[in-house]
Amino acid sequence: MEMKGMMGGLYKISEWIMRLSVTNILWVICSLPFMFLVFTHFMAVATGTVSEEQAGDFMKQGFILAGIVAPFTLFPATSAMFGVARKWVMGEVDAPLLKTFFRNYKDSYLQSMIAGIIYVVLFAVMIVDFQVYGGELKDLQFVSYLFIALLILLGVSLFNFFSMVVHYHMKTFQLIKNALFITIGRPFRSISTAVMCGVVIYISLSSPKLMFLIPFFTGSVVAAIAFWNFYGIYMKLQMQAEKAAAAEAEEARKEADEIGMPLDDSHEQHSRK
């Protein structure tokens, strides 16, 4: 029996807290080597274990190590988390969390790993270029702002890749290419994804008191927002494809009527595909 009123609302809220937290914890556990490297290096700098002179190089070392392990841990785990978010956005809110997560983890592991290597290299190249133009080449410092925009663009395309790898059956490079095309071709959705996810991440990192959100909610909330935006693009593309198919079928019918030839069902069905 479904609860109504205030108790029903509280029950639904508690259900969503459970869904988001369990999914986020699974993501953290499967990304543990990456999380451990980032957390330990960050805490070493924050607590003063490392001197200020060595802090910069120490953090660079940490990010390099994290970048090496990310394709094998963080990327497959994030794809699995997006697989759970996909169920929620498509209305299957009661889908079993553990089964859905680990099935997506297994099914998308190889593609996520390959894409992870490519994305890590792209991010590394852009970050190095940003540092070069922003610090060493003073006359071309304005170019560094271009790399900030490209980094944001690449980040949104990564969210779209995670959404597509759990939604489509495509080759890895085709997924990456289409993720970039969707990101560039749908700027308003891309800006929406960047702003909304950026706000969630900023809130989670803005205060030590709010950092508890990272192991329990941040990742799953970001995944839900990113897939919701992607699914909006997907539904709009589906509607456009259906309208184009209907227009093609109507055009074929008119041509058949003009020459007095009846249009058979098989031809009409083929036109609708």
What is the ordering of alpha helices and beta strands? HHHHHHHHHH
Inertia-based shape: globular
C-alpha-based Rg, rounded: 23 Å
The number of helical runs is 10
Weakly predicted, low-confidence segments: 266-273
Question: What average pLDDT do the residues reach?
Answer: 88
Helix content: over 70%
What does this structure look like?
This protein is an all-alpha fold. The protein has a domain at 11-31 and 73-230. The protein has helices spanning 5-30, 32-46, 52-69, 74-89, 97-136, 143-165, 172-185, 187-206, 213-258, 265-272. Helix 6 crosses helix 7 (172-185). The two termini are 43 Å apart. InterPro entries: DUF624 (IPR006938). Residues 251-273 are annotated as: Disordered. Keywords: Membrane, Transmembrane, Transmembrane helix. It holds the Pfam family DUF624.
